[in-house]
Structures are given as C-alpha cells and as structure tokens.
Amino acid sequence: MTSEEMVKQDQMKVNEEINKVVGSGAYESKVDMPEEFTPEVEAELKVLEELLQNDGRFSDLQEKSILIYSEMVLRKNRYLNLTSITDAEGFYSKHIIDSLALLEFVDEIISENNQTKITFLDVGSGAGFPGIPIKIMRPEIEMVLLDSLNKRVKFLESVAQELKLDDINFLHGRAEDFAHLPEYREGFDIVTARAVAKLPTLLELTLPYVKKSAVFLAMKTSEEELKTAKKALNILGARVESEKNLILPFEAGERTIIKIRKDKSTPKKYPRQAGTPSKDPLI
Fold first, then answer.
1. Beta carbons within 8 Å of 115's beta carbon, 6+ residues apart
2. Among 16, 89, 102, 124, which residue carries the largest CB count within 10 Å?
3. Which keywords describe this protein according to UniProt (predicted)?
C-alpha cells in the first residue's frame, strides 16, 4: 500500500467515526459541535446578525435565539445536509422571513381561541423551518416537530435544549403512521408543512392531524397546485378559506400561504399506508 493510499484509508476511518458520533446525537449543544466555520461562513453570520438587528420585529432575546439557531444549522450542515442556502441574505429571506410569514395566521388563530394554548404541528420539519422560528417568536405555543430522519430529530432536540425552549416535542417517523395514533389524530389547532410534497399528497399527510374547525397552513410557491387539490379537499373534509401571496426580500422569490379550514372529520382510512399518498395521490 502506498503512503497516499494509507492516508486515504486513515481519513476514511476518521470520517466514519465522525459520522457515528454526529449521528448518535452526542453533540447536544452548540458548544459541543465541531468547529466547521470557514472565514466565509463567519462573514455571512455577521451579515445575518446585522439583518436581524435592522429588521425591527425582534426583541433582543428573539434576535439572539434566531442567530444561535442559525449558527447551529450551519455548524451541522456539513454532516446532515440541512440546507443548501448558506449566504446571509438567502438564509434570512428563504428560511427566517419565509417561516415568519405564518405569524399573521398564527396570531389570528390564537385570537380565535381566546388565548387558549395553541397546539402546532410542523410535518417534515427538516432543519426546523418553520417550526423553530415560530416557537421563538410565540413561545406560548405547544409545538411538535415531525421528521422521518432520526439525525435531524436529534439535531432539533439539541436546538431546543440550547435555546431552552419549553412545550416542544419531537417525533421521529413517517407522517402516515403517526396520524393513525389517537394521541395525534385530529389533535392540533395548526398544522403546516414546507417543501414536503405536492398539495394533493400533502393534504392527505396533514389533514388527519388537524382538529375539526382548525386549520392547515400550506406553504407553496404559487396557487397553481390548488387546481389539482379539489378532490383531496372534498374527500378529507376541508376547504380553502384564504390565500396570501408574499414577495420575499432580496429577490428570493414568491411565497403563497394557503389557509385550509377543516369542516369535518377525515375518514379513518386516511392517510393510506406509507408511500401511497405520493404514488397514488387523490386527484
């Protein structure tokens, strides 16, 4: 074996050990995470801090929490592929501001419930958008984040621990499975999902979690998918109540929030078994 081959073999062993540790969730806090920041990333974080300071909507604690959360996402990004967006303007507009576009609807629902504690489910949470930013801004909400990848769930747990977030829980598994458990079925005032699936599939995955008379907030790039969602809405017992179109800052594109009201209980057969809603959507 040549010296070059030996070095390569040693590096492969090191990478395997790193992946074992990271995947186990051993890095439970920001302090414990391996230092992976390049000077470029450090510079982007400084720009992000300035953007948050100049935004005007954040308290000192909220600003600090969002910045720490952003740092944690970027630290773990090399191992978990949490986001392809690492520049400050993109991260701010496509992750932070995009997530907070839901706040208007969240506040409406809090008002509808006369200050009763709201239950919120983020399906396919990934790196925690939009759930974590919403929780930072409205800490009184009872938040549940669901994701199919255990490594991401471990990461989200470490974020909640680092930020000292209360009333937040995490589910590892598929949306099709948890929706049939009585403790989660029709148990939430607000359900949302971002970049998970086309709307007909998404409705089948999410509406079973929504309480009767409560809402699902679909985050889409346009209303175009509504054209194919009529059958799913009818079968699953819901209707479109309103839509709001937004332009994200720094030319980051458009966002459409579709507010869907659930009028009757979803038939017990839905969602169908894992994979079926995407392979055979209700269209």
1. none
2. 102
3. Cytoplasm, Methyltransferase, rRNA processing, S-adenosyl-L-methionine, Transferase
Q: What is the reported pTM? A: 0.86
Q: What is d(CA 36, CA 78) in angstroms, rounded to the nearest whole number?
A: 8
Give the annotated binding-site residues. 124, 129, 175-176, 194
Mean pLDDT on 258-264: 97
12 Cβ contact partners less than 8 Å away, ≥ 6 residues apart = none
Please give the annotated binding residues for S-adenosyl-L-methionine, written as ranges: 124, 129, 175-176, 194
Per the listing, tokens 């450090």 go with 42
User: How far is the C-alpha of 79 from the C-alpha of 33, rounded, in Å?
Assistant: 11
Look up the CATH number of domain 101-279.
3.40.50.150
Q: What is the C-alpha to C-alpha distance for residues 136 and 156, in angstroms, rounded to an integer?
A: 13
Question: If you search the block for the tokens 């598929």, which residue do you land on?
Answer: 174
pLDDT at residue number 115: 67
pLDDT digits (tens, 9 = 90+) for 9-23: 434 443 443 344 334
Q: Where are the domains of the chain?
A: 101-279
